[in-house]
Design a protein that fits this description.
- By secondary structure, the chain is an all-alpha fold.
- It has helices at about 5-15, 30-45, 50-65.
- The protein contains three helices and no strands.
- Helix 1 (about 5-15) crosses helix 2.
- The longest helix is centred in the middle third of the chain and has 16 residues, at about 30-45.
Length: about 70
């Protein structure tokens, strides 16, 4: 998976949720956790669209959901 593409998708999701998109940098531990979760979920749900998985993971990250 293209890590830069997923980073841009995460940034866009954060903007939609009115979060400070600059608080997560490309090299941060938070982004690494989100990226790894996206890859894990994509491997489990091969039929799901990447943007849906990214949205779900970012939502889980923001809300401290058990899904994340």
């Amino acid at each position: 998976m293209n890590k830069k593409l997923i980073y841009k998708m995460v940034q866009n999701c954060l903007k939609q949720y009115n979060e400070d998109s600059h608080s997560i940098s490309f090299e941060s531990r938070e982004f690494t956790e989100i990226f790894n979760k996206v890859i894990e979920e994509k491997n489990k749900e091969t039929d799901s669209e990447l943007h849906e998985i990214v949205n779900d993971v970012v939502y889980g990250y923001i809300t401290d959901s058990p899904y994340f």
